[in-house]
Design a protein that fits this description.
Layout (H helix, E strand, L loop, with lengths): L4 E3 L1 H30 L8 H24 L2 E3 L14 E7 L5 E7 L10 E3 L3 H6 L7 E6 L2 E12 L2
Helix pairs in contact: 1-2
Length: 159
């Protein structure tokens, strides 16, 4: 069995809603597209039919992906987190020692990671380095540009 996917309650709800939408709305839309394309006649040279079938394949693939996540997840209990050590659900303010810039990140499960918005996975090198650290700790992260050093300035619990 694969490792469980870590999800916040918000992300779990999003995935459940997506699955309902795919099963109820999107499947019907694609079935209607296929039905309409079939009415055009010869399927061997029917690009509308081919496109609708491709969309159906993509939909079924995404449904399988979401179903696999929903069948194998662990809910992140954000209320159980504390502000003394970095953990899942923590919002961490760090100081880049080399540049002197402060940066803020939220530690999330891999399904919710979005570095552009400051959401980093606890499985990423930076996330792993921060996990369990306290305010005042320095962490070193190996990056393609070399080893980067950060100092933990603040830990807050995201609610």
């Amino acid at each position: 069995m694969a490792n469980p996917v870590k999800l916040t309650p918000k992300r779990l709800k999003e995935l459940q809603d997506e699955m309902v939408w795919m099963k109820t709305v999107r499947e019907k839309e694609i079935a209607d597209q296929i039905k309409e394309a079939r009415s055009f006649g010869d399927l061997s040279e029917n690009s509308e039919y081919d496109e609708a079938k491709n969309e159906q394949g993509k939909l079924f693939s995404r449904e399988a992906e979401v179903e696999a996540i929903l069948n194998n997840y662990v809910l992140i209990e954000e209320d159980a987190a504390d502000d003394t050590a970095v953990g899942l659900g923590s919002t961490v303010t760090v100081l880049d020692v080399a540049s002197g810039e402060e940066e803020e990140y939220r530690i999330v499960g891999s399904q919710e990671a979005d570095p552009l918005f400051g959401h980093i996975s606890e499985e990423s090198p930076f996330g792993k380095a921060l996990m369990g650290r306290a305010v005042g700790d320095e962490v070193q992260v190996d990056a393609p540009v070399g080893t980067l050093t950060y100092k933990v300035l603040n830990i807050a619990i995201s609610r």
